[in-house]
Structure formats: structure tokens, C-alpha cells
Amino acid sequence: MAIEFTLNGRPVSLDVDADMPLLWAIREAAGLTGTKFGCGMAQCGACTVHIAGEPTRSCATPVGQVAGQAVTTIEGIDSPVAQAVQQAWQRLDVAQCGYCQSGQIMSAVALLTQNRRPSDADIDAAMQGNLCRCATYVRIRAAIHAAAQTIGG
């Protein structure tokens, strides 16, 4: 049975099992590989996407749960907030290996969409569960603050 939802602003119908993790439906059935597999247990954040604007771990979300909803991946973010975050990431050279960065960016965009002037504590809370094996946390926090300044926070 096909699962229908909106993916990056476009309606999609994926003929996959409703219990398939959204991560694999996005990567395998929809062919969008920006969302990464990290741990498979919703503990690392590499697979973060937005469902109805909320950051969600796609590895632990059955695709059947998103039927009729809007899902946004790293390939689909294009708001002024997203642009500010991506520019700050590049300007501050946040990524080292880069593997976790799509999930980091998705969480940062969600934070700044809801809170344009986050404190360090706000950033820590929003980014909790997004692990970076290269430990670029200081640069991630600096990039979030820089993006906040760019968007007028």
C-alpha cells in the first residue's frame, strides 16, 4: 500500500511497508541521500528531518506515521533561516568530517525558526542528541549564534 505525504514541498506516494523507517523510505524509495544513517536508535541525530516543522529522528519514525504530513529533509530547506544557518556553517568552517552535519543543520534551523535569539542553554537543549564524532560543538554553537545575528535575532 502506498504511503502519501509531502516531501520537500512536493506530494509523493511511496510504495513501501508502513513500518519501514522514514529514513530508509527517504533514502531508498525517494532517492534523497542527504539524511544520514548514524545509529538506527534515534540517539545520534544524523537522521534528523522536519515533520510538520519539528525536528524528528527519521530512523525511528515509521513512514506510515507521516501519511498526509509534510516532511522536509536537508535537500528541501530553503527558508531565510536555513540560508543563514548554511552560510554560517560555511563561514565558520563547522564541518570536519561532515557526516552528522545535515542532522545538526536541521536541528539548528528548527531552533532558530522558533527562537531567533537563543542563549547557550537554549542551543544546548535544542542540539542535545545531535552527536558529532569530530566534536565540533564549539563551532556549531558559534554558527548558530552567527546565524541568529544574520536573521536579526
Descriptive report:
This protein has 153 residues and is α+β, with helices and mostly antiparallel strands. The protein is 37% helix and 14% strand. The protein is built from 5 helices and 5 strands. The chain has helices spanning 22-29, 80-91, 101-114, 120-127, 137-150, and strands spanning 3-7, 10-14, 48-51, 54-57, 70-72. Strands 2-1-5-3-4 form a 5-stranded mixed beta sheet, with helices on both faces. Strand 1 and strand 2 form a beta hairpin. The model has no long low-confidence stretch (mean pLDDT 96).
Structural class: alpha+beta
Number-wise, the strands total 5
Residue runs with pLDDT of under 50 for 5 or more positions: none
**How would you characterize the largest beta sheet?**
5 strands, mixed
- Helix count equals 5
Q: Quick check: average pLDDT? A: 96
What would you call the shape? globular
Proportion in β-strands = 5-15%
Share of helix, binned: 25-40%
Strand order, sheet with most strands? 2-1-5-3-4
Subunit arrangement of the protein: single chain
What's the N-to-C terminus distance?
A: 45 Å
Order of helices and strands: EEHEEEHHHH
Please tell me how large the radius of gyration is. 15 Å
